Amino acid sequence: MAGRRKYGDPCGIARALDVVGERWALLVVRELLLGPKRFAALHRGLAGMSQNVLAQRLRDLEESGVVRHRVLGPPVSARVYELTPRGRDLEPILLALGSWGARDPLDPSCTAELSVDAMMFALKTTFDAAAASDVHARLTLRLEDDLFTAEIESGRFHITRTDTPSDTDVTLTTDVGTFRSLVFGGRPLTEPLETGEVRLEGDRALAARFLACFPRPTPAL
User: Fold this and answer.
1) What is the pTM of this model?
2) CATH of range 12-101; options 1.10.10.10, 3.40.1190.20, 3.10.50.30, 1.10.443.10
């Protein structure tokens, strides 16, 4: 990190920003919160970031003890990146930051879609425990090439990335844009089911209850 500029301020906030304050750094952390990823998968989730910048951020975060890499295999040898315990400590900070930022109006010129992991993280930041107090649901969410198990129980929400489908009440298959329209756009579930944009196995009413547990944040202004 010899070439990086630092604040030279003893405040803990400044020292934290010395580590994760560079552009894209916290978004790299966001993409790894639900589990390890290969470089190509990380880059897909950060489409506006060049591969060179991503490689540099990964080097910076590794040097700071936030990210580490390991090699999978055999039979297939592949390098993946994952958060260290220190990196995972950033999750509540990112949840608070995401909740705070979601209250700002979206720039109408922004045409980019959320990454899959950003969409899953948005579920975490908008989950309404009061609205979910009587919901007991376990879902498989298949968003494009990613598979997640989501569970609401006793007013708590938990989501994990998985490699294989588990035994759940509902399996919902769609793309990120359609899923976002259902969760935050107020789109009724019946419409994309009719058009084939969504495939659903299991309890349709429970799926609708699940989708209603993530209200859009109240605008700050």
Assistant:
1) 0.90
2) 1.10.10.10
